[in-house]
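hey
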């Protein structure tokens, strides 16, 4: 189908606003991504894949303004021993970052592309390119072409402490594009943490390749400046008996679209992806997940919970594709929203597509208000209504937070949610 001229014009305007990095091992991948972008155009309102989310502010040439407000919260993950890598409005800050040296892992910067990094050459843009089917993800192609920086992490052993990517937002008109690549060798293990508002507008891609028996844990906390906009993509390929577990918390943000594309290619692999979000007012949050089972005896879980109030909108699009021959697949998908008033809305599109005959796959999606009987029970025991509402809200989100294996990280996420509830719900 021909791409409408208006979409192509808008895409060219966006391309003209950027500078294509050149001169290094990523050149070929960048040119290929640019060709993909020009062939498909950036997303528009009439694209079925963007039916529930208006991409306008994510694709226009200039980044919308995003005010920066004072933040009196303690830095995220501050009590956890980790290696810190700091980006300020998408620019690496060497002074604020730790030395990029850690046993069992090699860390390079994408901006140092003149260095001949063979393993990254084979991966950069590869999973993103494959993830353009069956639907076009042109914001990810734009990222591969124009990303100015990011980290390239090659893990060869079990890493003793997490790597923490910290995103700071200091310019009210910043427009950041970061691309990270993670390669997990056989038997290796890494925990990657991410936190911070990043920029007025943020486009991020992470490509994760996990070899046989490799393990990758990922915990991301997006916040807290409300007017920011973000489009993120997480592309993952899993080998035999490998494990991938990812959790994302989103608090505030006028527009957030998180896409996760997972391919289980090795037998007995496990992929869990979960998310919790809390927002009100003009908050719009979209989780879009596509999991492909292409091996025997694999397990996948999708657990997404949203708390919405005062006109906020939540979106979930999730699909499990089981290819022929992917027998003994165990796929689970649940998306739920808690609407704290009658003005908010939740839009869900859960899907199963199965071509194997010996599988156990299920999905469900619900939305509703606070349980009146539970609220009455707490109030009858002297709990004030605001505190009771907060308690029930935390209980609602618990299933998603429990997907985080590390109790210290889970406790940190719960504290952030409690802080949001105290500020917003009274």
């Amino acid at each position: 189908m021909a791409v409408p001229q208006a979409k192509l014009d808008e895409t060219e305007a966006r391309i003209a606003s950027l500078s294509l990095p050149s001169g290094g091992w990523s050149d070929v991948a960048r040119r290929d991504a640019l060709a993909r972008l020009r062939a498909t155009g950036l997303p528009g309102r009439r694209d079925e894949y963007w039916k529930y989310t208006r991409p306008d502010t994510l694709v226009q040439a200039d980044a919308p303004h995003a005010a920066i407000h004072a933040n009196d919260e303690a830095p995220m993950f501050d009590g956890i021993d980790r290696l810190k890598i700091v980006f300020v409005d998408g620019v690496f800050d060497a002074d604020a970052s730790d030395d990029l040296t850690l046993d069992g892992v090699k860390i390079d910067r994408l901006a140092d592309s003149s260095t001949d990094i063979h393993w990254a050459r084979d991966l950069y843009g590869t999973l993103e390119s494959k993830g353009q089917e069956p639907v076009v993800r042109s914001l990810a192609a734009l990222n591969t072409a124009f990303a100015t920086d990011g980290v390239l992490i090659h893990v060869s052993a079990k890493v003793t402490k997490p790597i923490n990517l910290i995103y700071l937002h200091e310019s009210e008109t910043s427009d950041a594009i970061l691309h990270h690549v993670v390669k997990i060798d056989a038997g290796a293990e890494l925990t990657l943490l991410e936190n911070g508002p990043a920029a007025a507008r943020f486009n991020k891609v992470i490509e994760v390749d996990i070899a046989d028996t490799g393990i990758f844990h990922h915990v991301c906390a997006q916040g807290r400046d409300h007017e920011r906009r973000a489009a993120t993509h997480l592309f993952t390929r899993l080998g035999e008996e490998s494990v991938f577990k990812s959790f994302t918390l989103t608090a505030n943000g006028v527009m957030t679209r998180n896409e996760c594309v997972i391919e289980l290619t090795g037998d007995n692999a496990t992929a869990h992806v979960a998310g919790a979000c809390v927002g009100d007012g003009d908050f719009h949050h979209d989780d879009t997940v596509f999991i492909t089972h292409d091996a025997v005896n694999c397990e996948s879980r999708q657990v997404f919970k949203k708390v919405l109030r005062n006109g906020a909108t939540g979106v979930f699009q999730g699909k499990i594709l089981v290819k022929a021959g992917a027998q003994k697949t165990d796929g689970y998908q649940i998306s739920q929203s808690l609407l704290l008033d009658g003005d908010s809305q939740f839009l869900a599109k859960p899907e199963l597509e199965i071509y194997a005959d010996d599988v156990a796959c299920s999905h469900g999606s619900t939305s509703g208000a606070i349980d009146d009987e539970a609220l009455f029970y707490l109030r009858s025991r002297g709990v004030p209504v605001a505190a009771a509402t907060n308690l029930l809200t935390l209980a609602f989100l618990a299933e998603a937070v429990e997907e985080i294996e590390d109790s210290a990280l889970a406790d940190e996420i719960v504290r952030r949610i409690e802080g949001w509830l105290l500020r917003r719900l009274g």
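The longest helix spans residues 407-425. The mean pLDDT is 93.
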